[in-house]
């Protein structure tokens, strides 16, 4: 009895070979199905879009309000207007501060500002920060650093403006990195000017990457926004909101009313004293007349 052998997964081909009796079977294994998935090329990350320009964002910015800022320098009080604005797009969040002078007060003399000092500018007396969402970075401006105009220099205005935009970005995007900004100094600058420039940024917690051996050109940066400080001279700079201004006006009105009462009381006292003095004068005149009369009578009696 013959049994048929089952051959699995084979291709069996009958081939008659010369010189050989019968058929010889050549067997070839079927190729096993490929269970491996073809390698899929890793998808490349799309290129990040370029940050939106500051000029464009500034044109889209909406005002957030204005407050009164008082600076103190060399015994002179400088009052000005601090303007806040903000622009929000799908890619960016932009915040800007601008300052303009209103008046300077030395004692009882008030001198209003005029010309450029009384205007808002985009480079001087201004600071801004732009949050770029695709790159998760924050960029500070203006380009070249925050600069105060000559009239408001050495009053702490530049430090105040930078500290304010730092405080704003820290409160909203603390995990964003600080995009490097370039600051340069002219070749003729002094060592003291270089140290002051470096201290201006270092005071806020920025780090430096020097571009030259003289440390006049540098990139300032920070790995996280929340590591910046945002400090300023609170002793010589005071910001007044609308409510604070009303409170200040109310206090001044109370002080004025109190002074008027004191003046009225002093005037009343002066009137009383004048009346008493006049009475004393009248009494003295009468007494003088009586004495003279007695002397005349006495002399007449003797004669």
Verbal overview:
The protein has 303 residues and is an alpha+beta fold. It folds into two domains: 187 residues, no CATH class; 37 residues. The chain contains four helices and twelve strands; from the N terminus they run E-E-H-E-E-E-E-E-E-H-E-H-E-E-E-H. It is elongated, with a radius of gyration of 45 Å.
Biggest beta sheet summary: 10 strands, mixed
N-to-C series of helices and strands: EEHEEEEEEHEHEEEH
Average pLDDT number: 84
Helix content: 25-40%
Structural class: alpha+beta
Number of domains: 2
In whole angstroms, the N-to-C terminal distance is: 201 Å
Q: Number of helical runs?
A: 4
Form type: elongated
- Low-confidence runs of at least 5 consecutive residues: 1-32
Oligomer: single chain
- Our estimate of the beta-strand percent is 25-35%
What is the CA-based Rg, rounded?
A: 45 Å
Number-wise, the strands total 12
């Amino acid at each position: 009895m013959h049994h048929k052998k089952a051959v699995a997964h084979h291709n069996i081909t009958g081939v008659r070979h010369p010189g050989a009796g019968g058929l010889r079977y050549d067997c070839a294994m079927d190729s096993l199905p490929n269970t491996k998935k073809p390698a899929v090329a890793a998808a490349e990350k799309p290129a990040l879009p370029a940050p939106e320009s500051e000029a464009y964002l500034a044109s889209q910015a909406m005002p957030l309000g204005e407050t009164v800022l008082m600076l103190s320098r060399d015994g002179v009080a400088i009052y000005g207007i601090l303007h806040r604005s903000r622009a929000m797009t799908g890619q960016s969040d932009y915040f800007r501060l601008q300052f303009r002078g209103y008046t300077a007060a030395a004692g009882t003399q008030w001198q209003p500002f005029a010309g450029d000092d009384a205007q808002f500018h985009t480079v001087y007396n201004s600071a801004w920060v732009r949050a770029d969402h695709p790159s998760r970075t924050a960029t500070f401006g203006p380009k070249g650093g925050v600069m105060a105009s000559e009239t408001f220099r050495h009053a702490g205005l530049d430090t105040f403006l930078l500290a304010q935009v730092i405080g704003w970005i820290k409160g909203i995007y603390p995990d964003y990195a600080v995009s490097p900004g370039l600051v340069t100094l002219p070749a003729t600058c002094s060592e003291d000017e270089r140290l002051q420039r470096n201290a201006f940024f270092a005071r806020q917690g920025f780090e430096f990457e020097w571009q030259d051996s003289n440390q006049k050109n540098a990139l300032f940066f920070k790995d996280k926004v929340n590591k910046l400080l945002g400090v300023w001279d609170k002793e010589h700079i005071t910001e007044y909101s609308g409510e604070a201004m009303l409170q200040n006006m109310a206090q001044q009105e109370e002080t004025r009313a109190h002074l008027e009462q004191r003046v009225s009381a002093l005037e009343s006292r002066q009137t009383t004293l004048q009346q008493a003095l006049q009475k004393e004068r009248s009494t003295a005149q009468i007494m003088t007349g009586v004495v003279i009369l007695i002397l005349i009578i006495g002399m007449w009696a003797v004669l």
